[in-house]
Design a protein that fits this description.
Helix content is 93%, strand content 0%. By secondary structure, the chain is mostly helical.
């Protein structure tokens, strides 16, 4: 029995040693797992913080782009308004130009008619002058 007691005691010592090894390994493994989990959480929080900052920057960029689009739209509308005003002004000027052109044509025809009348009057005056020319005989 002594050898059984000695064997049992040796078994208990091995068991204790195994429990210590497993416990120390488990504690070490548990500590490593906790450290790894802590690193994962730190990485997660850093990633979350970076993602939040990127989303915030993206939203600010979207707001700036939207404002630029609105500004461009307003500028386009002002340009279109100016274009419409200039187009109306051009049509008005073209209409006045047509009227003035018609007046010039009318006045040129009147001028030609007056020149023709002047030529006729001049011709008639020449005929009258020829008909009324009195020759005075010279006294010799």
């Amino acid at each position: 029995m002594a050898s059984l007691d000695e064997g049992l005691q040796a078994l208990e010592e091995v068991h204790g040693a195994l429990v210590n090894i497993i416990s120390s390994d488990s504690a070490e493994m548990l500590r490593k797992a906790v450290d790894k989990q802590r690193l994962i959480w730190e990485h997660f929080h850093q990633t979350e913080k970076t993602a939040s900052q990127l989303v915030s920057e993206l939203m600010q960029a979207e707001e700036r782009v939207a404002q630029k689009v609105l500004d461009a739209e307003q500028q386009k509308n002002r340009g279109l308004g100016e274009l419409e005003r200039l187009e109306k002004e051009l049509w008005g000027a073209a209409s006045r130009n047509n009227k003035l052109g018609a007046e010039v044509d009318f006045l040129q025809k009147e001028l030609e008619a007056l020149k023709e009348t002047e030529k006729e009057m001049q011709h008639l005056q020449e005929e009258i002058d020829e008909d009324t020319t009195v020759v005075i005989p010279s006294a010799v």
